[in-house]
What does this fold into?
Amino acid sequence: MNIRSANRGDLGVIIPALGKTFAEDPSLGWILRKSDDAEGILTDFYGIVAEHVLEHGYIDVIEDEGEFLGAAVWTQPGGEVPLRALRKAAPIVSKLGKSAPTLFKYLRASSKVHLPFPSWHLEVIIVNANARGRGIGSKLLDYGIHRVGADAARLEATSQRSAKLYASRGFVVLGEIQTPAPTPEIIMWRPAASPYIPAKDRTTGEPRE
It folds into this structure.
């Protein structure tokens, strides 16, 4: 198996995989269950996210002899997707159907979470269905944590199983986001280590201050 940074040519595989994974998610997938095309909506949305992260964060890809097995999406501190990029998602609203009110409630609940400290953000780890049970998610997580180094990191777990994996890597629970979905999102945090060892900035290759 090999883990590497994604390039633009990988997006044709990664973006549909993101859409499929989130459509099956017990949180966001449940929110969009009454939409006209949950997987299509999420594929379009995470296509916008992936394009931004490819330039301002990291998308790690794991493969075996050229076969795509999974990916992890990380944003740097301060590298969240800006509102001007998210505006590209406006045409998706027409596809929400009966899921629109529930989605807006979800977004309102999520927007209330503001952590007062900078950190890397693990947006998502995805693993192909035919590669599950082989430790792919753990390998991607460890690879990303190694790059983060002594910096702080955060994520949102949508199941107790994934939360258990993150806890084994030093993430602790800060609280839960109560959304319209039956399963809350668990906010988890990995504190910065001491002494501080800055990770390298993607754009300059130099340590960040």
User: Anything to note?
Assistant: The longest helix spans residues 38-56. The mean pLDDT is 86. The beta strands are 2-5, 57-64, 67-75, 120-127, 153-157, 172-177, 185-190.
